[in-house]
Write a structure and sequence with these properties.
α2 packs antiparallel against α3, α2 packs across α4 and α3 packs across α8. It is built from 9 helices and 2 strands. The chain is mostly helical.
Length: about 240
């Protein structure tokens, strides 16, 4: 039996799930790796300027992928992927912490200060991100399934946006509150920001995420349609 499994060619369904999972894990890891680099988003006609983390570019992709997997493969596989992503995040943090504490070679192309600036992890931010990720992704999967049952499998746009937009609000709020208010207050490692500042940060980050969620609606329709057509060839 074991030899049969080892030599068995993966079907279209397994191949597609692995590829989607790969994009999910890559987006999740990238979110943490590039989060320290901020950029300015300006909307001239509204006179609005926001400082946003680069991690916000990759993170919405994780919600898109879980929604695609929920639609095509079901709630259980989507939930399994969310838990897998959490374990991968923990593993990534452990490896980075080990690497930052190893003695640096004197001729290292990247000096210690530069490396720590990019990969040095603030415990509060990491802790907040982990809780926010697990909570928001779980809510996203559950809400997606709820809307799917309520609409009897119709109105994909509703369950995609209805699940993602709410879960993104939970994610953004938890990260900011835990990392910048609760953690500093209990540890005394830094000065906690005010609730007014927290609301400003949450609103700016959330509006961007919500817009991305709305923009990716055509993408989920195209992806689900093409994946279903591809998988039907295995059945035919």
């Amino acid at each position: 039996m074991q030899e049969e499994l080892r030599n068995q060619k993966p079907g279209r369904s397994e191949q597609t799930l692995l590829i989607l999972s790969g994009f999910f894990i890559a987006s999740l890891v990238l979110t943490n790796l590039i989060a320290g680099r901020f950029f300015t988003l300006e909307i001239p006609f509204l006179h609005i300027s926001w400082a946003l983390s680069s991690g916000i570019i990759a993170y919405p992709i994780t919600f898109l992928v879980t929604d695609i997997i929920s639609e095509v493969y079901g709630e259980k596989r989507a939930t399994t992927l969310v838990l897998t992503g959490f374990l991968v995040s923990v593993f990534t943090v452990i490896i980075i912490l080990i690497s930052t504490n190893l003695p640096i070679w004197k001729n290292s192309p990247v000096d210690e200060q530069s490396y720590n600036t990019v990969f040095g992890l603030a415990p509060g931010i990491v802790f907040g991100s982990m809780i926010a990720y697990l909570t928001a992704q779980y809510v996203d999967v559950q809400l997606f399934e709820f809307w799917r049952k309520l609409t009897k499998g119709k109105h994909l746009w509703l369950r995609n946006n209805g699940s993602t937009i709410l879960s993104q609000l939970i994610d953004t709020s938890l990260v900011v509150i835990i990392a910048l208010i609760i953690y500093p207050r209990f540890t005394g490692t830094s000065e906690p920001i005010t609730w007014h500042s927290a609301v400003q940060i949450i609103v700016g980050q959330y509006i961007f995420k919500a817009v991305i969620a709305l923009v990716d609606t055509p993408l989920i329709y195209i992806a689900v349609d093409q994946i279903n057509k591809y998988l039907k060839k295995d059945i035919a």
